[in-house]
């Protein structure tokens, strides 16, 4: 029999965290247990109706049935540039060279290292974090060094704690605020220090802004790194319509920023995919232009869930960080189990699915992540089951 062994870089990957959670959940559900799934950051709210209508209209147009442009429809990219100006005061983005359409931000983040990382090159990641940063680098043959995010630093990396030699060696650094899984946010001052460091050491800054629109205090909206003067010299930023407009299944996102970085990403993409369905981009334009009232409603719903969940966790004596943005609550594992042991035990005994902190990197050990993606009553029920355990 032929034997088709996985390539080493693939075989050496841990199981993809969220696929592993889905599998464990299905096994317990098959035994008839009432599952409350707080494991994956997938909004449960429906995509607003007007976005579906825009898709339907656009899908009826035969001109949209052919291969789309590799880099995305110019009108979608123009809508992105306008949205960046309105939302983040990032003026003057050139849609032709500084914006690219993506089939969800995951593929863009995963593909970017292919364009800039040579085998043996170093990239910095800041765990606990989304696993795709490290995977993309490793697929490109690069090495990863961790700049851990610690509770005592409110989950910001210690930029000055890393020696000059490592900064000079690093080709790329990934940051994610509001953060998955910690829900920490960054200020423009932090981004300014990062940009300064990156400029001095010729490092690409990759900012993942997937959760910027789920904030709980309008006076403290999460900023874009591109609002820092000169950030475009070193930074590329990813935003996605997935969480903002409840469109995870639609696969539509954008990367914005440094022209060389956008161009490099485009070069990879034109070789491995053929762009996002035009009708989905049309729907994306409608979302960006008219979506804000709907996002406002979603924020109110998440806020109610956050408040109820944090109150229930406090009442149960479970330490946690009250998030100011994102759809996550980052909490301490009660007792002395590891986070993986706790999560498995919880699922088997109570049917509640949460994510082990260690799945986001070793420094996530001792924590677990709750997604606010079920309704308030179910969240309260979940915390009650956790506390009974
Ligand atoms: N970045 C972060 C931090 C995420 O949590 C996710 C998805 O959960 C993504 C990016 C990817 O989102 P999408 O590919 O749907 O745009």
UniProtKB/TrEMBL annotation:
<keyword id="KW-0808">Transferase</keyword>
<dbReference type="InterPro" id="IPR015421">
    <property type="entry name" value="PyrdxlP-dep_Trfase_major"/>
</dbReference>
<dbReference type="GO" id="GO:0008483">
    <property type="term" value="F:transaminase activity"/>
</dbReference>
<dbReference type="Pfam" id="PF00155">
    <property type="entry name" value="Aminotran_1_2"/>
</dbReference>
<dbReference type="InterPro" id="IPR015422">
    <property type="entry name" value="PyrdxlP-dep_Trfase_small"/>
</dbReference>
<keyword id="KW-0032">Aminotransferase</keyword>
<dbReference type="InterPro" id="IPR050881">
    <property type="entry name" value="LL-DAP_aminotransferase"/>
</dbReference>
<feature type="domain" description="Aminotransferase class I/classII large">
    <location>
        <begin position="34"/>
        <end position="386"/>
    </location>
</feature>
<dbReference type="InterPro" id="IPR015424">
    <property type="entry name" value="PyrdxlP-dep_Trfase"/>
</dbReference>
<protein>
    <recommendedName>
        <fullName>Aminotransferase</fullName>
        <ecNumber>2.6.1.-</ecNumber>
    </recommendedName>
</protein>
<dbReference type="InterPro" id="IPR004838">
    <property type="entry name" value="NHTrfase_class1_PyrdxlP-BS"/>
</dbReference>
<comment type="similarity">
    <text>Belongs to the class-I pyridoxal-phosphate-dependent aminotransferase family.</text>
</comment>
<dbReference type="GO" id="GO:0030170">
    <property type="term" value="F:pyridoxal phosphate binding"/>
</dbReference>
<dbReference type="InterPro" id="IPR004839">
    <property type="entry name" value="Aminotransferase_I/II_large"/>
</dbReference>
